[in-house]
Amino acid sequence: MQFGKDAVLRLMVVDDSVEAAESIISTLRNQGVAVRPSRPESEEEFGALISGQPLDIVVASRHARSVPVEQVFQRVSASAKDLPVLLLLDSVNDEAFIEAQDLGARNVVLRDRLEHTVGVIRTEWTDLEARRALRRLEAQVRETERRCDSLIESSRDPIAYVHEGMHIRANSAYLEIFGYESFEDVEGMSLLDMIAPGHVDAFKQLLKQLSKGDAPPPRYDVEARALDGHSFPAVMEFSPATYEGEHCLQLVLRRQELDPELAREVEELRQRDQVTGLFNRPTFLRALEDTVSDAAQNATHHGLLLIEPDHYAKLLNEIGLDAADEFAASFAQRLRSAVGPDDIVARFGEHQFAVLSRNSDHVTTTHRAEAVRGAFADHMLETSSRSLNLTVSIGGVQIGEKIASVTAVLAKASQGLQQMIGVGGNRVELFDPGAMDRAEEERIEAWVQRIREALDSDRFVMHYQPLVSLQGDPDEMYEAYLRLRGDQGETVAPMSFLQIAEEHGLLWEIDRWIVAQAINVIGQRLRAGRRTTMLVKITQGSLQDDSLIRHIEEQLARHGADGTLLVLQLPESKVFTHLRQTQEFLSQLSRSGVRLGLEQFGAGLNSFQLLSHIDAAFLKVDRSFTESLPTSPDQQKKLKEITQKAGALGKHTVVDFVRDASTMSVLFSAGVSYAQGFFLAPAGPEMDYEF
């Protein structure tokens, strides 16, 4: 399981000590795990949480008095939920471990070994997600099988499933073409009985080859025989399949009324893209399925490449839409000349092409990809009306036992292709499960270089989203969002590069850039007679020393800006784990009048207790309180409690990601100070909202 920003661990801690529970949660967050915690203080509250909200893991102290551990296991068992319970112990010995197993604990964790506790929690979470994924897949498989069975039965094509040469399933069209009334008439019948006598020997040889595991031919011409004894020419198409969990062959039979030579020509046309002459997508996918199956069964190695021309939209504007087909044909011709004679080449999308190199190792596939890239980068592409200077981006996959799945192969190839487009194009990204670390290092290095170039050449840009007061405050307020400007003017969202920037110590430089830009905007608007409050996000790395403080003071003086109009935002969880540093930072910040905002507020166990140590002016409510706000009375109640407590402390509350009018009406009634979201206005490069 990948613990990304979108994966949230819903953790319940049953412990009399709030500090001990918070230490577990903080350690998890420091290791990059997003946590949505809860801590019941009575048996009634525990029962309500178990029955009323989804949970992932329960950590229960053996000696908790607020909710005895026996009650924990009894309630969890009675809920019939797949909910792992970890027993929190001060120390462990044989008797304690056996007792934990008897109670029903999935594992034990030690109070004073937080790293061990977090490791066990992550392991159990991974196992839980795997079990959930398996249940989802099983349900999807059952539904897919039901739909497929319905589609096959209603299909006008004669379709049958054959196992070891015997019929195990056939649809109505198949029965009709042979003259049978029901499947019971052919169930268990050999496929040889459907073949004319003159073709039996050759067909018997085919069945022997298939029984040995050889790949079925995509097309087999044969003389079929109906129940009444008359024969007719037919084409059989085989493909591997499973039916009711059993491996078999799917047979699609088509009556052949045309001349065989003409039929082959028609079949050839059916497999080709009419503009480029390359194979079309369905034909390529069938070949890819066979190749992936071969890799899984025989441990062979093959290469897949997805290729796109760089900056296609801009290119299309230059050559004109009417020349798109001519461009595709010229592109296909150049591509065909750059690959091997035995490679399967296809037009996979409007401007996406695919190459399948069978029996190709990593080195060969890499050379093939570079040859394709060089064929376009080093030569002009000629069309009838112009010469084009063109480059391509390539995403590839080395197909083998470790990635023997069509879905995974295409996903990895597409991911590599998009990454290469995102870092400027004219690059190759080849995913090889055996060389994954090397490929990841190269991708990260390209991003690090791009971020450094963006900082040096001022290629970051700001987008702005308004915060609208719900309490009649007429002042202008915007939140600034960071974007990266690409080589062709496209904008790249920060989720693509912030994690890499953090790992390579670049966040503090990005913080300085965005803060300077915000102060510049504040100063410009002040000189234009407009007081505009700006909210900007910074990272905990800027709390380490006073360099950002000095930078803010310098920029405020340089641009003649009012510090009270700048609000720096930090996530609540980061403030909690860097409390002393935040206090010192805020103390120095107050000299300039700059204020602090807390994001993801309410996600911790003692959010309002944090406000007794940190003077935050703005509280941005965690999204968990507003995801289903219009339809959840419980969430409406919690939001109202937060706004009332915040109002009593003189704090402004903010709810973002507002998407509809019904949510807005709830925010009004709950007493929220400010709302922002796509329903009000999307983030954009201009600050033109009419407050």
From TrEMBL:
Coiled coil region boundaries:
127-154
Organism equals: uncultured Lysobacter sp
Q: Where is the GGDEF domain?
A: 300-433
Q: Which GO terms describe its biological process?
A: regulation of DNA-templated transcription
Q: Which residues form the EAL domain?
A: 444-691
Q: Name one GO molecular function term.
A: cyclic-guanylate-specific phosphodiesterase activity
Work out whether the entry's keyword set contains Transmembrane.
Answer: no
Pfam families, alphabetized: EAL, GGDEF, PAS
Superkingdom of the source species = Bacteria
Q: Which InterPro entries match?
A: CheY-like_superfamily, Cyclic-di-GMP_PDE-like, EAL_dom, EAL_sf, GGDEF_dom, Nucleotide_cyclase, PAS, PAS-like_dom_sf
State the UniProt keywords alphabetically.
Answer: Coiled coil
This chain belongs to the protein called FOG: PAS/PAC domain
